[in-house]
Amino acid sequence: MVDWHKISLDKIAKELEVPDGYIKVSAPLEHDNIVNGDGLRAVLWTQGCPNHCLGCQNPETWDYDGGSLRKIDDIKKELASFRGQAGLTFCGGEPFVQPKACKEIADFVRKELGWNVWSFSGFTHEIITEHGGNALDFLKSLDALIDGPFILSQRDLSLRFRGSKNQRLLRLEYGTGKILTIE
In terms of Cα–Cα distance, which of 14, 35, 44 is closest to 105? Predict the structure, then answer.
């Protein structure tokens, strides 16, 4: 029998190695996005994903050697130039394989720009919490998490901000990562 729990814990432990002060991205920053969270949002597309979900909309983001390396300070400057955004959403790839860099950016937009912070993850809240470490620190900086892998056989385009029925939209308590509500 396959132990998916252990497989998930092993996958989340394989962080993408980037130099301090950098993040690996798969695409330019977006702004005025309305499909990856509430309100107008900036979107940061991370590079690298160990989950390789069948039917993934972004398989080009899987390769840990793909994408481009960007200075976090440059990302912050670009985000600060965007006007009228309600928040920032981390998409991927898998943001939780670069949790330190993502947390630094999340903390900046919350404190300096007053935005809320969301992230997508192929890992569940429970796996992230159990794994702990940098991934848990990043989770605690979020207001919302869309969790769980995309499962093609459960695809449902009527779901808000999700692609398959197994995924959850979790509203989180900032600073603790505790689940407040589940959609």
Answer: 44
Q: How far apart are CA 23 and CA 124, in angstroms?
A: 22
Q: Kindly report the pTM of this predicted structure.
A: 0.96
Per-domain boundaries in the chain: 4-13+23-182
Range 156-180 burial, b when 16+ CB lie within 10 A, else e: eeebebbbbeebbbbebeeeebebe
CB atoms within 10 A of CB 140: 18
Which residues, including other chains, have CB under 8 Å from residue 148's CB and lie 6 or more apart?
Answer: 121, 122, 123, 124, 164, 166, 167, 168
pLDDT at site 5: 83
Q: Take residue 133 and report the two structure tokens written for it.
A: 């470490």
What per-residue confidence (pLDDT) applies to 1?
A: 62
pLDDT (0 to 100) of residue 55: 92
pLDDT of 2 over the 90 cut: no
Token pair for residue 159? 């779901």
CATH homologous superfamily for 4-13+23-182? Aldolase class I (3.20.20.70)
Q: Closest Cα partner for 20 from 104, 137, 109?
A: 104
